[in-house]
Amino acid sequence: LVVIGAGAAGLLAAYFSARQGVRTVLLEGSKQAGAKILISGGGRCNVLPGHFDEAAFFTQGSRNVLRRLFKTWPHAQVRAWFENEMGIVLVEQQETGKLFPEANRAKVVRDRLVSACEEAGVELLLNWRVDAIRCNDSASENFHIEGHHDGCPAEFSAARLVLATGGKSVPKTGSDGASYRFAEAFGHSLLPVYPALVPLTTGDDDLKQLSGLAHPVEWRAWQGNKPVDRGSNPMLLTHQGISGPAALDASHWFERDAARLTFAWDACDRQQWAERLQSTKARSAGVWLNEFLPKRLVGALLQRAQIDPATRLSQLPKARRRALLDLLSADEFKLTGSRGFAVAEVSGGGVPLAEVSPTTLESRKQSGLYLCGEMMDVIGRIGGHNFLWAWVTGKLAGTQAAQSLLAERAT
Ligand SMILES: Cc1cc2nc3c(=O)[nH]c(=O)nc-3n(C[C@H](O)[C@H](O)[C@H](O)COP(=O)(O)OP(=O)(O)OC[C@H]3O[C@@H](n4cnc5c(N)ncnc54)[C@H](O)[C@@H]3O)c2cc1C
């Protein structure tokens, strides 16, 4: 059994295959396994969310299939596996509910997964870049894999193949979109692939003065006048535009559906801001807003609403008052795009869920081929959800591929 790609999904696929006694080879194109695990969570690796929340996942496929897949390895069991089998104690970050390794180092997670694979008997071959995969006529060796090992032409035959080659986000980690090419060669269709969990760029020059400011916001994504998603988490203003958890979570809607995004600078809605404004004893707009928001932000918001901070509230023209309330409760930026795959945390779109078995992840286009991880059309919000998807689907694909091989050899 060959697993291609030693990222989060591939490491688990290989581990669970080898644990069943199947000879398992794990081919990794880069110099090291799990490069993306190493840079995850700011170098700390947010291994899992604190609890399972189905609403934190997005797919254009069936939610029923998504649910069934997650049920194959419930969140509590994944956590127990990391803690008890891998010996990686996970600690919940109070404010965000994210689970990080106690050591606060992603390397601990990556190294332990690699050593677990080695202990289970996985043959991990680094610098083994797969260029093409062909189907063999031989019944026992279904797949012929061609590529380069340490720069020299190399090949492999496999009875079962698990594709765990990721998406195309942060291609310098080795995940450069080869997945999609391989999947298409086997007859799979692809949903348009887009950068998700990605900082967005804006054309609002007046926001540049806020670069570096992080502030909790409530965001909404809209299709026409219909709100399609919302969230509340911190946003970071940058030289290029908006980033931080709020912008990353909202970016998926902008990138996939060109949705309109609005941001409230506080937990208050328009009505509550209007009441605050009505009841304040503050004399000027600047003094009033300083009660609720950081000074830098107040200055920029008043500028955007074309209000002099010293303007007496009693003399604030109706149009300016309306503009200010609009900005406070539903600020909109001139979004021009995103920073793209180079920095996106995940790739949205990819292989439709409908093209794999919901119980085994075997391809419906090619028997003996199993797909898992980021290459599938599933993404999660910030918070460990994307790794949860990779761990669960990696384990399922590796286990099922190995079992089907064992079953075949037993007959
Ligand atoms: C900066 C950053 C921070 C992140 N932080 C978090 C976080 O804290 N928590 C979280 O849940 N998610 C996080 N993510 C998302 C998470 O890293 C991904 O969802 C996850 O790594 C996907 O796992 P995967 O195994 O499917 O793909 P990958 O991890 O991308 O692994 C694919 C592997 O396949 C290899 N490969 C590709 N093509 C070939 C080929 N032709 N031949 C051989 N090998 C090949 C690649 O080199 C790579 O090692 C983060 C992502 C980024 C970019």
Outline:
The protein has 411 residues and is an alpha+beta fold. It is 34% helix and 24% strand.
Describe the 3D structure:
The chain has 411 residues and is α+β, with helices and mostly antiparallel strands. It is 34% helix and 24% strand. It has helices at 8-18, 35-39, 63-71, 75-85, 106-120, 178-185, 244-257, 270-279, 285-290, 295-304, 318-330, 385-410, and strands at 2-4, 25-27, 48-49, 57-58, 90-92, 98-101, 123-125, 128-135, 143-149, 152-158, 161-163, 191-196, 200-202, 214-223, 226-237, 241-243, 260-264, 335-338, 346-350, 369-371, 379-380. β9 (143-149) and β10 form a beta hairpin. The mean pLDDT is 96. Flavin-adenine dinucleotide is lined by residues 4-10, 27-30, 35-36, 39-41, 45-46, 129-130, 164-166, 169-170, 174-175, 178, 345-346, 373-374, 384-387, 390. Flavin-adenine dinucleotide (FAD) is lined by residues 4-10, 27-30, 35-36, 39-41, 45-46, 129-130, 164-166, 169-170, 174-175, 178, 345-346, 373-374, 384-387, 390.
Q: Which structural traits does this protein have?
A:
single chain; 411 residues; alpha+beta; six-stranded antiparallel beta sheet; five-stranded parallel beta sheet; 21 strands; binds flavin-adenine dinucleotide
The ligands found in this model are: flavin-adenine dinucleotide
Biggest sheet descriptor: 6 strands, antiparallel
Tertiary shape = elongated
Helix content bin = 25-40%
Query: With helices defined by DSSP (H or I, 4 residues minimum), what is the helix count?
Result: 12
> What is the rounded Rg?
24 Å
Beginning-to-end CA distance, first to last residue? 18 Å
> What value does the average pLDDT take?
96
Number of strands: 21
- Strand arrangement within the widest β-sheet reads 17-14-15-16-13-18
Structural class: alpha+beta
SS strand fraction: 15-25%
Low-confidence blocks of residues: none
